[in-house]
Amino acid sequence: MSQISIKQEDRVFVLTGAGISAESGLPTFRASDGLWAGFRVEDVCTPDAWRRDPAGVWAFYSARRAQGSKANPNPAHIALAELEAQLPGRYFLCTQNVDNLHDRAGSRNLVHMHGELAKARCERECGRPPVDDRAIYASLDEVGRCSCGGRMRPHIVFFGEIPLEMPRIEREIAESTLMIVIGTSGNVYPAAGFVNWARQSGAQTVYIGPEPPLNASAFTHIVEGKAGEVLPGLFDVQS
Q: Which CATH number is 27-70+120-156's, of 3.30.1600.10, 3.40.50.2300, 3.40.50.720, 3.40.50.880?
């Protein structure tokens, strides 16, 4: 595919999934050696799991923190941060990923819809905001408590919970004229439905990844390839 032209009047919405982080060495959920290998989702990433076994949940996410600390932003993360700098006020990034690679690459107008691995929040949802927390806990006794007395839990959207900042995400999609989706499987909702919302608003939709997603028919363009190889130089931003 030739360069993607971004006109002066365009508003760009970017959605990224596990595929972009995989290029930095972080496993995807579904790979045979991936995130859930050896774990049941029900044991580590549901509200019931947290109530039954908070120590096990924290052990799982502490291991993810240790793994994530070794990863660095790749050329795709950097290309998106550079695109944002060229489109002040007209660019929005929503990521399904809980790592901080976009942040470290320089992205600023950014929402982590599934939470952030390097933060913790009160289990009681008492209204206090999440706090930075990069600790790798050896036991539950090391995990702090909120000032309200509730135990701190990973700032992760567990299966069965509502993704974060959905009203803002929906508003940004409705205002966008170009949606770029990178490295998602196309079967995790509500994110898999974003492209349909964008199409209903008349936006052009582009998918970038090594293989088409399950919802490939919803895109106006498919660009096959690794994001780190495809994204640099892909955009023609008209001034």
A: 3.30.1600.10
